[in-house]
Amino acid sequence: MTDTTGAGGPQDHESDGPTGPVIRDKRRIDPETGQVRDVSAEQVQETAAEQVAGGDNAFGGGVGDALPGGEQDPSGAPQATSGTPVDGGRSADDLHPDTVVAADRLEDLRRLQAEYVNYKRRVDRDRVRDREAGTTTVVEALLPVLDDLHMAKEHGELTEGPLLAIADKLETTLGRFGVERLGAVGETFDPAVHEALMHLPEADLPEGATETTIVQVMQPGFKVGDRVVRAARVAVADPA
Length: 240
Prior knowledge:
Layout: E1 2-4, E2 10-12, H1 41-53, H2 97-154, H3 162-176, E3 179-182, E4 194-199, E5 213-219, E6 221-224, E7 227-230, E8 232-237
Parallel strand pairs: 4-8
Antiparallel strand pairs: 1-2, 3-6, 5-8, 6-7
């Protein structure tokens, strides 16, 4: 058991007298002779134990004190803080105002570019649709004329002459605008573009026909692009 005295350090009642702080000279060079002292293994171990007990290390502090920012994650890697250098050695708090403004303008430019691309696609789609709608209106207005020309051809009245040339030019002009005639003798019947008005079981079919086939066209049909203006009105027959 030890206690303190008024005259000095702690006193051990089991010893002969008071004991004070123990001073050990651990200098490797003797200050009097200038020679290197011999250090025993026991002294080296004792010094190392004292350093571990006192928290001494090579950094003179905690591991975090030797890392940038003074912080580290559980893996031991330093974490970036507001003062930690980032890209180009500059911290996140040191960005120039012009850099922030430039980033905002770049984002605005990208947004405007995306809006323009979408607008252009929409305009192109609407342009094709409007063109087809206008052509469809013209074809619907010309249906009576086209029907009369078809009937004249069926009765052999348009075999020659200027009227035949006019009829051919009209059909060629409509073809340049995407107008397509529907219905022809020998075609396979398609309910999507044909309207069967009669069924003729005794009609002659083309050689090799295996499906319901058109044998007579009463009114030709027309379509513009994918839109059917009028289905062809036909008579059909089935193969035997």
